[in-house]
Amino acid sequence: MKQFSLYDILGVLAPGAVLTIGIIALYPDTIKAIPNREFSLGDLGVVVLVSYVMGNLVAALGNLLEIPYWKITGGQHSDLARREESRVISARQISAVERRLQSAAFLKADETISNLSSSEWRGMTRQIYAYLGARKMTQRIDAFNAQYGMNRGIAAGFLALAILTIIHSGFVLWRVQLILLICTALAAYRMQRFSRYYAAELFRQFIVSPETAPAAESANHTSEET
Q: What is the pLDDT of residues 17-50, one digit of tens each?
């Protein structure tokens, strides 16, 4: 049986728990799905399972919402990092990334990252992640990615709860709805910060990465932020 990963716990279970508890508060009859008032270990397992299912649904909502969000805010930091004005990494580090890409044969000697299209650069960042994964240098990057996914899910969960309260009670609970929207904004702010941390760590690790990968097989992982 597969064990929960860091992303499962932070990116799925936590946002799922937010939405599950909110729905129970709005619709108390849903708690009758658990027959005993005193939670047993099996009842806790049901709650975790429900939270995991809800968390995956919230993650889907987060995936949809992040598309217009990043268009409004200018783009993900991993996409913007090659631009000096983005200040994700310094101008010297941008030049170091370009030289490292050339030495790793990801770029030809006469190619520059500024001339790559958006889709080509996005593919290049994924290739950089795979390169670091083969060298077991993604632990901090994965931690930032999990935090990014968690805050994206939490933002989507609070937004969904705000919409559910409007459906349930109109604007009678406007104070609660205002709090939920503030929580949504705070989670989105945290998501933005961890997007920057993720991108900066990705390229800084690439700059110092060794050319030769260790013999042991690297773990298979899919990056969420990119």
A: 888 888 888 887 766 655 555 555 455 667 778 8
Q: How would you label 32-55 residue by residue, b for 16+ Cβ within 10 Å and e otherwise?
A: eebeeeeeeeeeeeebeebbbebb
Count helices and strands in the chain by DSSP H and E runs: 8, 0
Question: DSSP letter string over 124-144?
Answer: HHHHHHHHHHHTT--HHHHHH
Q: So where are the chain's domains? A: 6-208
What is the model's pTM?
A: 0.82
Contact 145, 77 (CB under 8 A): no
- Neighbour tally for 135: CB within 10 Å: 16
pLDDT tens digits, 69-102: 999 999 999 999 999 899 999 999 999 999 999 9
37 φ, ψ to 5°? -70, -35
Distance CA 88, CA 111 (A): 22
Distance CA 187, CA 92 (A): 32
C-alpha angle with apex 70: 65 to 75, nearest 5 degrees?
155
| Spatial contact of 128 and 206, defined as CB atoms under 8 Å apart | yes
